[in-house]
Amino acid sequence: MQKQKLLVTGGAGFIGSHFVDAALASDYSVLTVDKLDYCGNLLNLEKALANKSHKFVKGDIADAELMSATLKSFKPNAIIHLAAQTHVDRSIEDPSVFVDNNVVATQRLLEAARVYWKGLRGEKKERFRFIYVSTDEVYGSLQTKDKPFSIESSYRPSSPYAASKAAGEMIALSYWRTFGFPVIVEHACNNYGPRQYPEKLIPLMIDRARSGLTLPVYGNGENIREWMYVTDHAQALLKVLQKGRVGATYNIGTGEEVANIKLIRALCTLMDAACPGLLPFEEAITFVADRPGHDFRYAMDSVQSLRELGFAPRVRLIEGLHKTLHWYLNHDEWLQSVKSGVYPQWAQRYGK
């Protein structure tokens, strides 16, 4: 039988590259489309690029002509839309970039995909899927004793990033409701693991600790996040692709909530053990002015979604932190390569 074909947008990024690896391991044929901006890196696809079942196209999903031609030539059975600007701090600095990339570009991709889908016939058209990968941040913020967000919860995004993802999600679902275009939406909690760009919390802490710099923590560090190891998310996305209902929304989380300061202290303890002679890392923690509109807590009720998909996360947080730390310690070449671009200018905000 011919392999099922997946078009993955943003596949040279953090989550995208892990999904590409998981899809190839599950015997799919994959085409990655990525414009290779600051957080897209072909080193993330090193394994995939050596696989004859993988192809790569450098391009912007906002380029309707390119995407239409790519869809026509590759003929995918599904699109997994991961391409996005994702960092809250950057969205505060320049919201327009997030609107352009997460809203406008998403609509252009949806339209190109809808035209392609309309031209399909029979089972190919019936089984085609467009999976929009969103975030728990669209729901807004919770307090300590609030119940986790469910798929029925209202959207109250706080940051331009979260608002742009909510907008893209609403446009995607409107294509389902108006045109019958087979969209599925997935909300994921905070991801972490190998190959994450070092502007994000965990790799930022690892990189700065190794460099003998301060470990900046917003506010009092009590903000709470739910965490999922990236390979678990990749497997969950495969389940969404295989079992998800058209028009449905799935919340994918782990139930492992932890305050940022507790997470960082645990990471410091692991660093103390892994890097003897540079102790103790916890002394480098420095509290800095809080981020504007900083959500206090994210948490999702994932029970219904996980049960329907027949999926359960495998990697517990402490195990995942240990694996993540050792990956970064053993992949200095990767870290230095991604830090050679725009990262140094962005990181100057934290000083020494």
UniProtKB/TrEMBL annotation:
GO terms for molecular function: dTDP-glucose 4,6-dehydratase activity. Its EC number is 4.2.1.46. It catalyses: dTDP-alpha-D-glucose = dTDP-4-dehydro-6-deoxy-alpha-D-glucose + H2O. This is dTDP-glucose 4,6-dehydratase. It comes from the Bacteria. Residues 7-323 form the NAD(P)-binding domain. InterPro entries: dTDP_Gluc_deHydtase (IPR005888), NAD(P)-bd_dom (IPR016040), NAD(P)-bd_dom_sf (IPR036291). Pfam families: GDP_Man_Dehyd (PF16363). Its cofactor is NAD(+).
